[in-house]
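Feature request, filed as a ticket because there's no other form

It would be nice if the structure record came with a short human-readable summary line next to the tokens. Right now we just get the raw output. Example of a typical job, pasted below so the devs can see what we mean:
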Amino acid sequence: MYLMKNKVPNNNLSLLPPKQDLENTTILKKCVEAHKYLGILNGICTRLPNVNILLNNLVLSEAKDSSEIENIITTYDELYQGNISSENINQYTKEVLNYKAALYEGYSLIKKKNILTTNIICSIQSKLENNNAGIRKTPGTKLVNDKTGEIIYIPPEGEDIIRTLLKNLEEYLNTDNGVDDLIKLAVIHYQFEAIHPFYDGNGRTGRIINILFLILKNLLKYPILFLSHYIIQNKAVYYKLLQNVRDSNDWDGWVLYILKAISETSQLTISLIENIIAQFDAAVEYSKKKLPGSVYSKELIENIFFQPYTKIDILVQNNIAERRTASKYLQELEKIGILESKKIWKEKIYINKKLFSLLKDSIRQR
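Raw output as currently delivered:
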């Protein structure tokens, strides 16, 4: 597909920042557009009754999409089931749920420390891969075209070289050097991919870094903008533009690609949030009318919107009701058509069918 000029490790990878000026008229125009939609997205979160409704659903979708880029495939049914029960889930679903845990790990650390360091990046990758292999120490890592077997790229080799490049990336990431942060995001994403510091999980770790950087720079309050599905839909272009930077230092095309991804993904996420809010409000009003007064509460409706699948134990854990009463609540919600139940192994699971359909349909539209 994209043939390497030299099939040797890229130990001469340039340090950041890039030498050329990336703030040209075309790029800055796209920056303004991306910031506009990112700002709207950031603001719309305040309209949610509980931001965790959005976080849980979007993070699960991102975990699925980001893993799919690496050919780790799971269905939404498997993912939602695995998120509420650890029994009888397959290895791919476990890996996707590890991504969710890794994202929350990174989010928690940068909120606490207000900096994104190499150590934090290593913690994210460790949680993602569920091992402590750390930064590559042995040679042999190659990026290969999975269709032709052709070597596309050989990242830098040698732990000292990799750590020097990561230290440079860390300084660039955390230092305000006057460059627009969305341009910096594109540069950071490319550089991390080029360093490829770990044996496994580099792509998914890099995509987690994207969202953490936006939060670090106060462009988002919460991890709600994810570019993975855009990359899936435009995968050939993504890899071509990465290669163009490697081969001919063509930064402009790469930066414009990332800015377009931010704009389009922001708009689609805004639409999804508006639909979730509308669906939640409708469920609240309908439940008020149809449920007995002893059953209805806003907290109950919030709980069935945290994710499409729920069960009695979740209501108990969230202090909505004790076990017998929680069972009654879910049965009442099923009677009025908000939930439907099914048996999965020995457990009875309740599905918020409209929310499930909304999330699946939104993914298809993206």
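Something like this underneath would help us a lot:
The chain has a mean pLDDT of 89.
The CA atoms of residues 57 and 307 lie 6 Å apart.
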